[in-house]
Amino acid sequence: MKKKILALMLVCSMAAALAACGSKEAAAEPAAEETEAAEDEAAEEEAAGGTLVMATNAEFPPYEYHDNNEIVGIDVEIAQSIAEELGMTLQIEDMAFDSIILAVNSGKADIGVAGMTVTEDRLENVNFSDSYATAAQVVILKEDSEIATVDDLAGKTIGVQLGTTGDIYADDIEDATIERYNKGFEAVQALSQGKIDAVIIDREPAKVFVEENEGLKILDEEFTVEEYAIAIAKDNEELLEKVNGALAALKESGKLDEIIAKYITAE
Questions:
Q1: Residue 240 in 3-state DSSP?
Q2: Which of 63, 160, 251, 262 is the most buried (most CB within 10 A)?
Q3: What's the rounded Cα separation, in Å, for the pair 16 and 196?
Q4: CA angle 206, 219, 231 (to 5 degrees)
């Protein structure tokens, strides 16, 4: 009889244990589902967000320049607004101008934003977004210069910033000697010191340099007129589409005009 009672007790214990295990598994299933859902949500947030790395050359006011320890300017605010449209965080990498396209192509940067003009040579290496600004290359001279027109640059010594469109187009000047500098203000300094005859650079930075350096002026005749756009790697069509969408939204809302007007006032 005792054996029967003992056997019955063992059966009941096993049944209770199995019931307990079933309860634990049932309780664990919703937790596992919740964890999986949370992981999926985090992955979606990461895919939608992330960091947008901008390569620039912060020596080009008012488009990008240093203000104490911060890089500011038109291009910075445009890139920041694009990042916000895409739900991303902007990260700025400051480098030499002629390294920007290399950084974009190597994946070290997602976009190149640096007052960069769309040219045929550059289009061979990167894609460009829709244009966000129209600019012009101008000529900076000493106030007592005898140069009166762009044609008078023939045979002169011209300063340019390495890798810029001023650098590219200066090669077309007949018999000119081209002196290339890493930074625009270095070319302007050389002009002030009488080492060169003129500087070719974008109009808005030229205004700043002339204002900050006594004895200089800007030639009335523009050297070229061009469009600024954002450089993106050729194999990143998805990002190009998103950037163009964000730019369209900024244009539609008037935000793009507001950013430019903040730094460039009508004359």
A1: helix
A2: 63
A3: 96
A4: 40
Quote the radius of gyration of the chain (alpha carbons, Å).
31
- Nearest Cα to Cα of residue 160 among 134, 190, 131: 190
φ/ψ of 80, rounded to 5, equals -65, -40
The pTM (predicted TM-score) of the whole model is: 0.68
Q: Is 133 left (phi over 0), alpha (psi -120 to 50) or beta?
A: beta
Of 35, 196, 227, 31, nearest in space to 118 by CA: 227
By three-state DSSP, how is residue 183 classified?
coil
Contact 236, 51 (CB under 8 A): no
User: In this structure, are strands 133-142 and 224-228 parallel, antiparallel, or unpaired?
Assistant: antiparallel
Percentages helix, strand, coil for the chain (3-state, rounded to 5) are: 50, 25, 30
Nearest to 80 by CA among 69, 91, 95, 93: 91
